[in-house]
Amino acid sequence: MNKTISILGCGWLGLPTAKQLVKNGYFVKGSTTSENKINLFKDLKIEPYLISLENLSNSKISDFLKSEILLIAIPSKNIDGFKKLLTYISTSTIKKVIFISSTSVYTAKNNIVTEKDVLESSPLLEIENLFLKNKQFKTTIIRFAGLFGYNRKPGNFFMNGRVIPNPNGFVNMIHQDDCVNILYEIISKQIWGEIFNACADIHPNRRDYYIKVKSDIGVEQPVFEEKDNSPFKIVSNKKLKKALNYSFKYPDLLKINYNSPDL
Predict the structure, then answer these.
(1) Rounded distance, CA 260 to CA 263, Å?
(2) Domains of the chain (ranges, CATH numbers)
């Protein structure tokens, strides 16, 4: 297997994934929109590229795409930008793509959602379909739930008296370490042409969860919109766990110490 991988977007999720891949013997090309990160990438043995989805050109991206695998880890919903990116991918050596999406594509209807659920039209879903319909390479879509870990602490969400809606709904979240491990497993096990939900096993209600995470880090207690009984959704991770034989590092969101320096 060719062990060269390009990661479009080495930010909160892309950078630790790149570090994990380098650690395991992969040659990683990483993109950023910030010149300040160039030396950091070099120190981490990541070949740096300055690339913006909004300003693509063949001269800027052609060498970056000289890989077998492309991981797309940018949160943009710029449909035209992705269409242009696809024209460059289609003429490159890329054979496999991982596109990081979100469980926000699922509509809340007071039910458990799986990868087989019918989805309503949205920009993110349209971008997913652009990749899935392209037959010049194989795409695996990862729909991550709410992201947390390290400098992204759930206890800091809804600060300064901001009211938390739907306290009787359920939490769908995933730690950064599990995200990185899942991405590595997909790459190392060569799982292509699939769609996966990625979410922790246990789904506490929003009231219990935000009381805990704020208590753990010692900030103001949450304020809830008590009259809000909006529809909820519970994201199923069964397909992912079975395909990868994966066990979550952080399966139960209520058993985590959110004040831990290792979190």
Answers:
(1) 5
(2) 4-150+173-202+233-250 (3.40.50.720)
Whether the per-residue pLDDT at 1 is higher than 80: the answer is no
Interval 43-53: pLDDT, tens:
999 999 999 99
**pTM beyond 0.85:** yes
